[in-house]
Amino acid sequence: MEAELSVGQVAKRCGINVSAIHFYEQKGLISSWRNQGNQRRYARDVIRRISLIKAAQQLGISLDEIHLAFASLPSGRTATKEDWADLSNAWKQSLTQRIIKMQKLKDLLEGCIGCGCLSMKNCPLYNPDDLLAKQGPGPVLLNNQDTE
Ligand code: FES
């Protein structure tokens, strides 16, 4: 087994494009070094890291969240089963929170379907000219649903 991999080998092993590898590296999710021929080389653990990235992305975990989670992993070694358990537990909680929020949004949207009032006072979808900006960024009426 080779100790270090070229970008092409990593791409082939992970089933992704070389550009994706460069993108992950640019985002600080993986790292490489240059050999004497000035070609990028990757440690073997990059395969597991990319697998984790792909799995997390399937769950809708953002690259920023993945980056944060990876910061807890010791660099230079392959993520262990325990590492994965810790990461997946944290992501599971995040996923559960998002499912709850999406369910609430779905319920709110069901109230709007067929209504069409777009009342700035009552409709969670409407905020013309950002009139609710003083209450916070984004869809304030929707965000207020989080605390209920
Ligand atoms: S459109 Fe009427 S409450 Fe949203």
UniProtKB/TrEMBL annotation:
Database matches in SMART domains: HTH_MERR
Does the entry feature the keyword Coiled coil, yes or no?
no
Q: Which UniProt keywords apply?
A: 2Fe-2S, DNA-binding, Iron, Iron-sulfur, Metal-binding
InterPro entries, per the entry = DNA-bd_dom_put_sf, MerR-type_HTH_dom, MerR_fam, Redox-sen_tscrpt-act_SoxR
Check the record and name the Pfam families matching this protein.
MerR_1
In this chain the HTH merR-type domain maps to 4-72
- What name does this protein carry? Redox-sensitive transcriptional activator SoxR
Origin species, per record, is Shewanella vesiculosa
Q: What is the lineage of its organism?
A: Bacteria, Pseudomonadati, Pseudomonadota, Gammaproteobacteria, Alteromonadales
